[in-house]
């Protein structure tokens, strides 16, 4: 029997995205100050936006097209975050292990979002 999910915070994909965004925030504290208004800001914004879009999509599940649109936005933000992680690695702000681990986490998040997007009826109310 499947447990009923009542809030977006109960979604495994939300929990993974929140954990990953929190890790990015902590790691990005060590980025150089000249990156404050570029890479640091961008990677924090996109990683947090994944969570925000998941929360919004969960509340829009009454409207399948809106639900799918917000999931698609979350997926796009997750892919953007992966790109910023690649830049952070290329600039030696993150180790290869840190960036690979986080990129892998976002691959997992994207996979879960794709499943949700492809099965909107499962989530409708």
Describe the model.
With 125 residues, the chain is mostly helical. The protein has one domain: de novo design (two linked rop proteins). It is built from five helices and no strands. It has helices at residues 12-28, 36-59, 64-90, 96-118, 120-123.
How are the SSEs placed, and which strands pair?
Elements: H1 12-28, H2 36-59, H3 64-90, H4 96-118, H5 120-123
Provide the CATH top-level class: Mainly Alpha
Q: Could you describe the largest sheet, including whether it forms a barrel?
A: none
Oligomer: single chain
Radius of gyration: 15 Å
What is the end-to-end distance? 18 Å
**What is the helical fraction, as a range of percent?**
over 70%
The number of distinct β-strands equals 0
Low-confidence stretches: none
Strand content: under 5%
- At CATH's second level, what is the architecture? Up-down Bundle
């Amino acid at each position: 029997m499947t447990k009923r999910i009542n809030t977006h915070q109960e979604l495994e994909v939300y929990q993974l995205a929140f954990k990953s965004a929190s890790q990015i925030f902590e790691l990005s504290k060590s980025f150089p100050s000249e990156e404050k208004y570029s890479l640091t800001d961008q990677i924090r914004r996109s990683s947090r936006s994944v969570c925000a879009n998941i929360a919004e999509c969960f509340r829009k599940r009454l409207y399948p097209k809106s639900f799918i649109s917000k999931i698609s936005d979350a997926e796009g933000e997750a892919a953007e975050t992966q790109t910023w992680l690649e830049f952070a690695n290329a600039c030696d702000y993150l180790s290869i292990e840190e960036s690979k681990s986080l990129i892998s986490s976002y691959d997992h998040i994207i996979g879960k979002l794709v499943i949700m997007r492809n099965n909107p009826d499962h989530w409708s109310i």
